[in-house]
């Protein structure tokens, strides 16, 4: 097996790490929470950073009229399927394809991941802005518009008494390494082609 | 290569610089200007934790207080033998059975001697046992919840004082009677005390996993007063030692008549021998009536069972099981050093402090050097068992603890001081005054093979002018001394709850990691729990109504109830749906003849309300739970006894 194909094989397998490790983590810090509230986002699930965190995030958020974090969303079915399919494609081209296919796979992965992130952003935006009109506490921005409580997509941000952090976790690293390896496989393949 | 060498050298020099910097800070902190500052030694900065837990008995308050050392900060008062309206202990339906006895519901006791469970002779921080003096009981407090989870009544006992001390592996918690009484109780002239009254020493087995208590046997001893006790440890493991007074067997004007004998006894009991005797079918089963109350964490409820018999043992039936060690003048504390060799008899009316030797005791027993007997129990010669005396150490010795470094610390009630002396040489090393009239003292782990000899806490009976006055009744107090050096240093005194009779302490690290944050709602097996708002309901059964109610920030569900009638008996079963640390909810109902409830996350508690008057009556949350706490309220409509208002309930909408 060619070196580039071995790299491609690794590239295809790495994103499966998403099934083992969380993709993202949102953490909420406040003085009353010496242990911050936290939520892991997995490829197919939301989970508590510490026991009962999601329940307690929901309880906090209901004061400003935010919806409960759903138990399940359609993405939890679509994303795992997407990863499985792209891994199978990756494996097939690792064994059968040439380096050009590696580039196509890389582009496919970048496109799908961007779509996923965009989808995540849309959900976050809705979660932070689509508030219950009977909310217990209503806050407005200085310009008079309704204040939103959208957590950051990436980075840290103050939301009322909380400081919210949103950062990728190990699963995202596996995905990122997989995608990058796809590109490397292409470049190595291309170089080999030239030298031979 | 040169480059590499250069960079390695550079790195090394950085490391050296860092290390030397570290060294200088360490030495600074030791020799700094504040090193001798007393305030600094007890200062625990905001947000920091204390180094030790101290469990200080509440005496006539019937409770057990939890303090931090060295700060002396009070964290919790654990209700044990007395009703506590703050926590609904003994008021709510779940914990009322905890205070059941053969005399019915007894809502108070006199709690004296906490002792922490041990494994291999060292405190393990799982449970605290404490005795109720007045209506003889032993309680167990679970240190994962800091709640009383079991109480067993002691039959054939009165003034349960030489209690509740545990053996080296918590095989037994021991409860000795202070007052001898007719056994079994019967109508007889008091003047016939002598020879007819008996004293019971009760060995309660402790089941290793859950700590469930069961009376294994009662040793029926001569009618003396059994004052305090301690287990043997190390080489003396398997023995238990009890001080006695009133070996005169007087029954009136005791302060004079029970102080006549030059020497009373320490009773040495070989419990291993008696255990073997009992396991082989020995002993006499006697009819009895005593309560065994157990709190179940999964149902959040206690049950009370009346037990009807107890196994008694006559010491004369087990040769070699019990001996008397003559000990001067009404000894109070009976304390065994960490090696198990020395048994200190704190003869409270004696000028000297008597220390017996376990090795010499065994030798005297083997050579049958007996001075006589009391009711058939062999008395050893004082000189044969004496290890040594601390001469003229103070007046009124009460209790001795050990630091694990060869020193002992004894309280002197009359001369109001703590005296440090050396085991083996019996020389007095230091003395420090107490303010005033010290009773017992405590070194964390002081009643074990492994004391943590950094602090001693002295507990004072009288404070007079020590604090801001509060009318005729003023607080009692505890005093903290640093004992890490050759001389003791008074660091702090702090007020206590009730009368601090005795205490037990443990390093915080032993207990802190096991402390529960909440109860899992999924594990709640309370028969009337509503584990979600969907499960809430109101059920009528004749004149009894059960309300299955929930709390979560910041509402009750249901919060409107109609169809209750005058003369109903309404049980409010409230489940706290919260699953967050430190979010209890409270509840109280106007006119309810009971206390509020204080319900921890995941817990269910019940109060009873018997409405006597028509109307619409509010209830509300009593624990400030959230920003919307003031809004956490509801109404119950009470109709006439013969009304036909239908039973309805709601949350968030009007009852239609």
Automatic annotation (TrEMBL), chain B:
Keywords: Copper, Metal-binding, Oxidoreductase, Signal. Its EC number is 1.7.2.4. It is found in: Cell envelope. It comes from the Bacteria. Residues 1-22 form the signal peptide. GO terms for cellular component: cell envelope. InterPro entries: Copper_CuA (IPR001505), Cupredoxin (IPR008972), N2O_reductase_N (IPR011045), Nitrous_oxide_Rdtase_Sec-dep (IPR026468), Nos_propeller (IPR041114), NosZ/Cyto_c_oxidase_sub2 (IPR051403), WD40/YVTN_repeat-like_dom_sf (IPR015943). One of its GO terms (molecular function) is nitrous-oxide reductase activity. Its main location: other. NCBIfam families: nitrous_NosZ_Gp. PANTHER family: CYTOCHROME C OXIDASE SUBUNIT II (PTHR42838), NITROUS-OXIDE REDUCTASE (PTHR42838:SF2). This is Sec-dependent nitrous-oxide reductase. It comes from Pontimicrobium aquaticum.
